[in-house]
Amino acid sequence: MRWFASSPTPSRPQIAHTCFFMAHLAPAKTTTALAIAHQLYGPELYKSRVLELNASDDRGINVVRTKIKDFAAVAVGSGQRQGGYPCPPYKIIILDEADSMTEDAQNALRRTMETYSKVTRFFFICNYISRIIEPLASRCAKFRFKPLPEEIMSNRILHICNEEGLTLDTESLSTLSSISQGDLRRAITYLQGAARLFGSSISSKDLISVSGAIPVEVTEAIISACKSGDFDLANKEVNNVIAEGYPVSQMLAQLFEKVVAVDDISDEQKGSHMQEFVYC
Ligand SMILES: Nc1ncnc2c1ncn2[C@@H]1O[C@H](COP(=O)(O)OP(=O)(O)OP(=O)(O)O)[C@@H](O)[C@H]1O
Ligand SMILES: [Mg+2]
User: Fold this and answer.
1) What are the angstrom distances between the C-alpha of 179 and each of 31, 176, 191, 207?
2) pLDDT at residue 30 in the model
3) What atom in ligand 1 is closest to the CA of residue 34?
4) Domains and CATH numbers, the chain
5) Across all residues in the chain, what is the average pLDDT?
6) CA-CA distance, 126 to 200, in Å (whole number)?
7) pLDDT, position 204
8) By mean pLDDT, which of 29-33, 77-81, 96-100, 191-195 is the weakest?
């Protein structure tokens, strides 16, 4: 597994002293950290070797001085394999949503991390690396998660549909992947919402309506009206959009994507359109 840097023997996996998992979306950062911990220790040792702290736990300096320090300080056995799991001789502290920790708490963590690095490894998970203080960030091996590729999203969504008895055709599947933009949680939420509202056979239109995305025909109509140079036509399309009450931010985001993708205007023209979007 690529998280385990330079593993000397298969029974002694080495992970970086501190790992940072970061991404703006939900491409399974938490799931990855939990999966690594489970693979290392198995169900029996997991509870005693792994401390998980998430956003619902207190994130002040007191937690670092008490709960985290107490857990980090205690050494564990020499790392005999148990039940086929590697069980390395260190523990793991998973700090989910680490960007919501106070600055004082982050400062206090620096020392704890260094002092107990032999017996405890840290996984920090965050959405915004800018909210992590530099001395902490620079002590970590960073893993930036990309949005999940369409193929992986689709496989998982199809698996869920299978288990839940939902029907999704190829068009709906690709619509779901594109409106959720590599965010698996968002895709699952849309699927759930559509299944509840429209029943087990879900169309592309159903998914668009639960997601709040603007139908492709609408954005395409605006773009072609603008290209035609016919002011009245463009005005009519804009009035349609206003009458439907589509959210402006969503409209701009979708128009942005469309403009970037068109190939019959120059990059300079695209740039000037983008500038106009920014002024909007
Ligand atoms: N390999 C997988 N198989 C099935 N479902 C998965 C897998 N990985 C992630 N998921 C599901 O995708 C969703 C998002 O995963 P996760 O909570 O790990 O994302 P995250 O990056 O931590 O998101 P956030 O930034 O919101 O905390 C969850 O519902 C999770 O159950
Ligand atoms: Mg998470």
Assistant:
1) 22, 5, 11, 9
2) 92
3) 18
4) 18-144 (3.40.50.300), 150-211 (1.10.8.60), 216-279 (no CATH)
5) 86
6) 35
7) 92
8) 77-81
Residue 93 is given by DSSP the state: E
Question: How would you classify the pairing of strands 91-95 and 50-53?
Answer: parallel
Number of Cβ within 10 Å of residue 36's Cβ equals 21
pLDDT of residue 75: 86
pTM summary value: 0.76
- The residue with greater pLDDT, 207 or 56, is 207
Tokens of 187: 């895709």
Residue 13 pLDDT exceeds 70:
no
How many residues in total does the chain contain? 280
In the DSSP assignment, the letter for residue 237 is H
Q: Which two tokens stand for residue 202?
A: 């879900």
Q: Label residue 78 by pLDDT band (50, 70, 90).
A: low
Q: Ligand 1 within 6 A of 184 CB?
A: yes
Q: Percent helix, strand and coil across the chain, each rounded to 5? A: 55, 10, 30
- In the chain, pLDDT over 90 holds for what percent of residues? 43
Q: 186 in ligand 1 pocket by Cβ < 6 Å?
A: no
34 lines ligand 1 (CB under 6 A): no
* Helix or strand holding residue 143 (H, E): strand 141-144
Pick the atom of ligand 1 nearest to 145's CA. 21
Cα(44)–Cα(47) distance, integer angstroms:
7
Torsion, CA 23, CA 26, CA 29, CA 32, rounded to 10: -140
pLDDT tens for each residue of 180-197: 988 999 999 999 999 999
> Ligand 1 in contact with 185 (CB < 6 A)?
yes
CA distance 262 to 274: 13
